[in-house]
Amino acid sequence: MEIRILRYFLAIAREENMTRAAERLHISQPSLSKEIKKLEEELGHELFIRTNKNMLLNDEGMLLRKRAEDIIAMVDKTAEEFSQLDNIIGGEIRIGCAESYLIKYLARSIKTFKEQYPNFIYHIFSGDTEPVAERLDKGILDLAVIVEPPNLSKYNYLSIPESDKWGLVMLSDSPLAEKEYVTLNDLYGLPLFCSEQSIRVDFPRWCGENMDKLNFAGTVNLAYNGSVFVKEGLGYLLTFEHLIDTSEKSGLCFRPIKPTLETNMYIIWKKYQVFSPIAELFLKRLKEDYHN
């Protein structure tokens, strides 16, 4: 199974059309069709549902797409690393990040690092801890910034200064907006939503055995999307402070929850990981910035 053929397969999966994919790849349609047929024969499965106009992935195709995307990302990252071996004036690094106002610390480190290495380029992938850690484990990411205590058997880590404080985002005319803070009792009966990760990790340690009394009507993994749901009257968003615009014109407000619930943030990387030169230098900068 050649990398070139996997790129052909992904092009068809994206375009859902053989002709458009061939045009994008700058090869003839018969040649592309022949290569994909050979791939299907090699795997022993058809990968597409073929119609007169489209080529849609079947279940086997969906499986290969996920694997192919990971393989191509790893191949491209490896090529980047080798191209940077003799180029310490710059290079690329890939970082997975949880959604948090405290990412400002990472941004400050990147800013000062770019002053010394102006050709340094960073790629940020945002998500909860699980998808970020999965990409880190596969070698697609160099570093990850997470909001769960790291698995010390797998990762080295640095602690980010400060911690995120939890609270409730609601419409400004909500009765709870009159309060200075929100308690557990205030939350009973309300349609709540937050990330799946926080339901699994954060709120059980906040409300303990009362967890089953809370009504989680849905989950969101991006606070901004959650704030749109609040504006549309779907309920109340539990999230970190500073993530949502709660200025007077926004129509939303934030109230901290009591007792206070805080979450720490960590920069992690795999133990015994081999970094590209620029990634090694950036990690050294992070250690200087956040020695702990």
**Span between N and C termini?**
46 Å
Kindly name the structural category: alpha/beta
Q: How many domains comprise the coordinates?
A: 3
* Quaternary structure classification: single chain
Question: What does the average pLDDT come to?
Answer: 91
Tell me the Rg in angstroms: 23 Å
SSE string, helices as H and strands as E: HHHEEHEHEHEEEEHEHHEHEEEEH
Low-confidence stretches: none
What is the fold named in CATH at topology level of the largest domain? D-Maltodextrin-Binding Protein, domain 2
What do you see in this structure?
By secondary structure, this protein is α/β, with parallel strands linked by helices. The chain has three domains: 3-70, Arc Repressor Mutant, subunit A (Orthogonal Bundle); 84-162 and 265-289, 3-Layer(aba) Sandwich (D-Maltodextrin-Binding Protein, domain 2), CATH 3.40.190; 164-262, Periplasmic binding protein-like II (D-Maltodextrin-Binding Protein, domain 2, 3-Layer(aba) Sandwich). It contains eleven helices and 14 strands. It has helices spanning 3-15, 18-25, 29-43, 59-83, 103-116, 129-137, 184-187, 196-200, 202-207, 223-231, 277-289, and strands at residues 48-50, 55-57, 90-97, 119-126, 143-146, 155-159, 164-171, 182-183, 191-194, 215-219, 236-240, 252-258, 262-263, 266-270. Strands 7, 8, 9, 10, 11, 12 and 13 form a seven-stranded mixed sheet that branches. Strand 3, helix 5 and strand 4 form a beta-alpha-beta unit. The protein is globular and about 70 Å long. The two termini are 46 Å apart. The model has no long low-confidence stretch (mean pLDDT 91). One of its GO terms (cellular component) is cytosol. This is HTH lysR-type domain-containing protein. GO terms for molecular function: DNA binding; DNA-binding transcription factor activity. Residues 1-58 form the HTH lysR-type domain. Keywords: DNA-binding, Transcription, Transcription regulation.
